[in-house]
Amino acid sequence: MSDHKAHLAQGSLGAVGSFVMAIGGTAPAFSVAVASAAIIAEAGVFSVASVFYCGLIMIGLVLAFANLGKSHPNAGASYTWVSAIFSPFLGFLTGWCLLLSSIIFMAAATVPAATSTLMLVAPHYVDNTYIVSLVSAFWLSLITLVVIKGAKFAYIIQLSMLMTEIIIILSIISCGLYLHVDHPAHPPELTWILPLSISFKTFSASAMLALFLYWGWDVTMSLGEETKSGKSELGVISSIIGLILFFTVMISVVLVVLTDDEILKSSSNILFAVAEKIFPKPWSYIAILCTLLSTIGTIEAQIVQFSRCLFAMSRDRLLPTALSEIHPKWQTPWISTLVIWCLGLLVILASSFLPSVNEILKASISAIGLQICLYMSLTATASAWHYRKMFHHSLSEAVIYVLWPAFGALCMILVGLASLFTTDLYSTLIGISAILFGIGIYFMKINLIDTK
């Protein structure tokens, strides 16, 4: 691994902090609110199967990241591991895709934060893309200031928001099932979860969105240098296993409570639609508050992940070394953090020209898929290869260190390839062009180094 010439605030987080940041990065309420309606539109009642089996895929990726994070904690995480195991080029490509996904995600995340805020204080501006963009910029700026102050401070903020979020979600789930279990909108059936019930075409169409539900937990890996030794992987594993069950229940609750027409009409925030049906106003607005807190949490996690990866890549001189500068008081990569703030503002500004808020969300989620699949599949493949000798130790170690991570990598590759044909041409071209631009930067940098 790379020689650390600059160090972040070591030992800032323990096992609880790691767990909280992983859950916050996944953002249960935000993910359900934004992606559930789209998944159900693609797969119908079989969205339960899609979410469940994508959860099994994601566990393989979690194991891959956790295995490498335990033995090689590094702020660069995926970038550093793939560079060391395969090649500097593939490592740079991995890190570049992570950076791209975080930048594009700024529009997908800050827009729900803005709309939730406006629904609470000025609902008549919810469909105004310019006002939404202005409020998005406000939240991005505020969260950036929190992240600059350090991982421990970010964890404290994340914990307070997460506790409120989980209480609200559990209330919605329990009340929804209690009130509608006798007369469900979609009577639950065993076929919802059977693997042969969902066609390959339906699964592939909904898989990208379902995987988006789980994405974000790997922020914990980027905090490896700031996490107490041996604790970085605990939160990730436990949170993802729990979230597989949680999201399956959540999708089931949505299907039990809402009709097809209600799901179609609630595409911007399906969690609020559920709350409106089971709680009288103004109590239904707790779902909006829940989505807002969850969205803030996931924006925070992505800023943390982006800044640490950019810091590590600049520390290795693949990007301008000024980006690896550490704040003297808070020991955070503050220049790298300001970079994503600036890029996030540009993405928000560009998205404000789209005709509607829903178009911003749809375009953002579509454009982000290829990058996520590429950097996660490369990392999982590197992990399986690095631990390939464990294959001969025992069956359990073969599964945990090699087979399941390799399975996750293969599935992400297939989903990524499928997205090239199922995603609209505009989003696909943006994704591919951004990746090619990064490859150009890498070889230009290498040529400059060789010339010197």
Low-confidence stretches: none
Number of strands: 0
Distance between the termini: 24 Å
In round numbers, the mean pLDDT is 84
Query: How many structural domains?
Result: 1
Largest sheet: none
**CATH topology description:** Amino acid/polyamine transporter I
Count of individual helical segments:
17
Order of helices and strands: HHHHHHHHHHHHHHHHH
- What percent of the residues sit in helical stretches (DSSP H or I)? over 70%
Highest CATH level, the class = Mainly Alpha
As a whole number of angstroms, the C-alpha radius of gyration is 21 Å
Derived structural class: mainly alpha
- Looking at CATH, the homologous superfamily is Amino acid/polyamine transporter I
Strand content: under 5%
Based on the coordinates given, report the CATH architecture: Up-down Bundle
Spatial shape: globular
Your description of this structure?
By secondary structure, the chain is an all-alpha fold. It has a single domain, classed as Up-down Bundle (Amino acid/polyamine transporter I). It is 75% helix and 0% strand. Helix 4 runs parallel beside helix 15, helix 7 packs antiparallel against helix 13 and helix 15 crosses helix 17.
SSE layout and pairings?
Layout (H helix, E strand, L loop, with lengths): L14 H12 L1 H16 L3 H25 L6 H8 L2 H34 L7 H20 L2 H30 L19 H15 L4 H4 L9 H26 L2 H6 L4 H9 L7 H30 L18 H18 L5 H30 L8 H28 L2 H27 L1
Provide a concise account of the structure shown:
By secondary structure, this protein is mainly α. It has a single domain (15-451), classed as Amino acid/polyamine transporter I (Up-down Bundle), CATH 1.20.1740.
